[in-house]
Amino acid sequence: MTDAIVIGAGHNGLVAANVLADAGWSVLVVEAQPQPGGAVRSAALTIPGYRHDVFSAFYPLAVASPVMRALELERYGLVWRRAPLVLAHPRPGGRCAVLSMDLATTCASLDRFHTGDGEAWQAMISEWREVADLALGAIFRPFPPLAPVARLLGRVGFDQALRLVRQALLPVRQMATERFAGEGAALVLAGLALHSDLAPESTLSAAYGWLLACLGQTHGFPVPEGGAAALTDALVRRLEARGAVVQCASAAKQVIVRSGRAVGVRLQDGTELRARRTVLAAVAAPILYGALLDAADLPPGLSRDLRNFQWDHGTVKVDWALDGPVPWEAAEARQAGTVHVADDLDDLTRYSAQLATAQLPDRPFLVFGQQAVADPTRAPAGHDTAWAYTRVPRRLVRDAAGVIDVTAGWLEPFAERVEQRIERYAPGFRSRIVGRHVLGPKELEELNPSLVGGAINGGTAQLHQQLVLRPLPGLGRPATPIGNLYLASSSAHPGGGVHGAPGANAARAALHRRRH
């Protein structure tokens, strides 16, 4: 018997286990897959000599998160690498908006789209730096984050705090209109907002664009040297140094409940594992409440609310082995670790509308990574390891271009469309491909069952499923209706991204309950 059992060895589960182990608890982590990591894993997906990140790939939230920083993973072998430029958003014809950790470089790039936007960007970053520590503390704590909010009010005053709240709630298109005159800044902010499932016209999209832009400006979009798995390896090494155990190829079948309290976990092979103090579930909320728990142990209204749980869109990810650098027409894009591919702001709105209306996008918005620009260990010398992901509807009705049959075999033709999209901005890109690997929603879920239907954020980021409403009304904190059982996945506040907050919040809630 162990003090705590954690279901799931993704980064949130491993963070939770580390927090508990730091408190002196004995911890067992059980993981269904043959290796730990969840959506933070690496593999040789294409051909020998190229190292690919299977899911997530760059980590501004990890280096900024107070949770992850406190773990000091650099002491356990983690080395961060950064590209010369953080982000590039090329436009047809070779113009390019750039985000750089050097503020003058970012501002000069935006001024080329409209004089004065550089100064406006500098003002935005100054505002962020004034509140960054408190904002991050508020974001990554259980809701409501009373202490950080109180300190924020004391620092900037009530009126300015209200302005910040208003800005966060804005659609990113409106925020860009209010603060900038040119399209460069708007493209950067809106593209970053679309790392979630929020359209440029969605409430709260400004918060995502603003947060990622400010983190990119101050921390970059770093990658672990050697691949994403290096982050997982550091978490596991830290955990095992404290005597905890990570047991892979051990799929949980059921949380064992006695007298309304979680007392252990039953595995698929029938093995029963007992927990003296707590069980933490680092799995998607519908898996916990719909599969791992008996409906008879849950409040009657929970099943109804669970039916209304909204996933984020599905995902398609393509990885390439390239025999040379990506030949971007815009020179700045060749120095960026991450590149956004979209024609303009209206193109992003059109793409979002196609997702909302169950159409396979004809001009998909791409988040593109070229890993060797930041970390040369990812590919043979002079070559590159590249990837791109885009979102697709969870239910496909038709192809927006009327070309692909969405009822059968649409994934490979869609990957061709993705490549053609890149080719427009980087003529000759396809001639440099020596290996390709494609993952669609089904394949992503097979590799990580918590990515249901290819949803990578544990549920929609829209306001109606955030804060006290995440994952379900009345369950806005890590505790569940079952005693000693806590939700520790991205389905819990504050949601998706590799920052460890859901895992840490769940672990701290368990520790607090035992103390009091």
Structure in a nutshell:
The protein has 516 residues and is α/β, with parallel strands linked by helices. The chain is built from 17 helices and 20 strands. Helices cover 37% and strands 19% of the residues.
Structure description:
The structure is a single chain. With 516 residues, the chain is of the alpha/beta class. The protein folds into 3 domains: 2-32 and 250-309 and 459-515, FAD/NAD(P)-binding domain (3-Layer(bba) Sandwich); 38-98 and 220-228 and 313-456, Guanine Nucleotide Dissociation Inhibitor, domain 2 (2-Layer Sandwich), CATH 3.30.519; 102-219, no CATH class. The chain contains 17 helices and 20 strands. Strands 1, 2, 9, 10, 11, 12 and 20 form a 7-stranded mixed sheet that branches. Helix 6 (146-156) packs across helix 7 (158-169). The protein is globular and about 65 Å long. The protein starts with a strand and ends with a helix.
